[in-house]
Amino acid sequence: MTTPAKQLAGFIAKFDPVIARFARSCRAVLRKRFPTAIELAYDNYNALAIGYASTERASDCIVSLAVFPRSVALSFYYGASLPDPTKILSGSGNQNRYVSLDRPARLNDPAVEALIKAAIANGKVALPTSKGYLVIKSISAKQRPRRPRVVDVRARRR
Prior knowledge:
The protein has about 160 residues and is α+β, with helices and mostly antiparallel strands. The chain has one domain. It contains four helices and six strands, in the order ααβββββαβα.
């Protein structure tokens, strides 16, 4: 039987090597930031989401790493209710907001850290005190391609 860690490594490996490396680096930063959080992995239709939560319930998620074929973002489950004085949050839904990541170190920027602290403070359930662990919550049978389609420019000229 495959371990959750090996399953998650396989999910990340489906992406372009540059995006996969970036996702692994961001995950390492978040794992260090949330050593007691429960990681919830969802290999969904549109993206891979790795949430950091106080319980195994998605509604107790503080932040998620959202991995797309061309980008990685830090998603706040209740981002619409967070104070955002520097206006770095994107999205217009009723609940979720995100910060596009251009480098793993962006996770340590003061404005991002302030959002993370506010998200922790807004949490209904405190983070556990024991060591965190990984749970594979879902794997969609049908998924969009994890690597961007490569277009052969020479073929278009013919």
